Amino acid sequence: MSARLDLRGRRALVTGAGHRVGRSIALALAREGMQIGVHYHQSRDDALATLGEIRALGADGELFQADLSNREAARDLVDRVLIAHGGLDLLVPSAASFEKIPLEAVDDEAWDRTLALNLSSPFALAQRAVPALRQSHGSIVFVTCASANRPFRGYAPYVVSKGALAHLMRTLALELAPEIRVNAVAPGVVLPPADTDADRLSALVRRVPLKRAGVADDVGDAVVYLARADYVTGQELAVDGGRNAIG
Question: 11-236 is classed in which CATH architecture?
Fold first, then answer.
């Protein structure tokens, strides 16, 4: 096999593709000529806009709605994509929640809500997609977070879910080799939430060696690299402006 796969005509499913990082991932893959399954939960208008951009790039795509907090719905999503596209070459579980919640306020509902979407759903998607990905010698790219290695205060369920997702990636890389490659992209200060305090954001950026925040397209480019890198598996690629290098 080539060490740099040609993605043209191959089929991808990107969850949470209607906005933010998921949208940028879907568009980056569309630029490579991939056929995109555009998943959304409630943001249909945003997903339609993403689909329009995909088609404007000369690529093809289709919308798929699902509530991924439900594992059975996640499995059904994969089944529907396989029927519509005739197979699958790349799975990118991007949909996630980023809920700020004080430790003392973390109850069972908050814990289960975050882990269902951020951890259980990616596992269900990946497990269901395994037969199709084995057939195509495809790959999975998870979206983890810099907090998997350096926890954020005030986000306990989120941080734990992303740390576990990183370990799931490494586990699946071993379990599914050599037919399926499994990697992850770990964004750092990339597309912070709109309500992020300006002083806090400035302080975070000062600690980044490249002295700037990243943009969603940086994550999309990293996913494209991992989708094409035929001798890379079990790796978490930090997209953090060098923050990971300074401890």
Answer: 3-Layer(aba) Sandwich (3.40)
